[in-house]
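Amino acid chain
________________
===
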Amino acid sequence: MNSLIILPAAHENGFISHPVAAENTERMCMKKKWLDSLVEPGTGQCLTLEIKHAQGDEVMEGTLLSAGGSRYPVINGVPRFVPAELYAQNAEIDSDTVQTGRSFGDKWRKDICWELENNEALAEEFREVFFAMLNVSGESELRAMYKDGMTCLNAGCGVAWSEFMFNVNPNVSRFAVDLSLAVDVAIKKTMHLDNVFIAQADLFALPFKDGFFDIIFSAGVLHHTGDAEKSFNNLCRHLKPGGFFGIYIYCVKPFLRELADTEIRKITTEMSFEECYAFSDAVTKLGKAFQQFTDQLIIEEDIPLLNIKRGEYNLQKFIYDHFLKCYYNRGQGHDISAVTNVDWYHPRHASHHTRAEVTSWFVNNGLVDIVFNQPSGWEHSGYFVSGRKP
């Protein structure tokens, strides 16, 4: 059983600097009830919570302590189980993992990402992704899946859109973790939900016991970890017998698209986030320009080497799928489209995988009832795959 230690109140200037503006921090808190769900990453030891600033059941600032002396700060209500480089202001980028984490933190904290659910076209895309990943046809099946008393992990939550958009059962404990400072937006977006817990954590070293979760999902994250298979294997350890695991993961792109991505990303991943966003903004405008051509492009024969099939295509979608990432979605708007492009071009960790490769991960971990879903239009984007632990 984990325990609490309440320290005398400290002046707020004594707390670790946090990157979210002060006016956004007053409601950020971790509820004490989550303490018994946490263990030290790696050792599985119980943790003691040393409270510096709390209001009733809500902890704003403190430290989680292990028996071995490790310390994990709780900053503005979010436990931080990651190196300080991933949450401290102005820290040096000393690895590809830190660069990737910082990149997604910068992305998700852009103003446009604070109100994603209000973008109708984007909300519909999220719904499609979430349902395909969990192998459900709609909200009624989702409600049936999320049963009272279950525990669920969102592995790589971003701003926790699945928690505040699809919180279909308040009696399911929803745990959401991310490597990046996206958690600072996530906790703001979910503070009104009593069944949601947010932490900044690494998928290779999670603060949960093995066999803890009934449901685990990871939407477009494993390929950004630096070792997608290893992160998949680690998540499987945390799944209960009978538990469900669903993922969305990048597939290998058509031949010329892979070449273009590889060469362009050699440059863009070395840019600052602001520089890469400017590039992505220009690429978004290019995609919009391609959409001005409304006549269908007719391809008369297959070109197997380039993974091009005969048929009729929208010009922008054809170029996007086969040659160049130049995303533009009129319904989602320019700014969201630009964020989608920078998501592709800036993080250093971004791997692509074959269907056979992903299947082997499920099989090698003993998962059964493996299902590949492929919503229309996502054929060249990635795989939606799910399975169960016997």
Remarks:
- Residues 6-26 have pLDDT under 50 and may be disordered.
- The chain has three domains: 3-77, 96-252+353-388, 255-345.
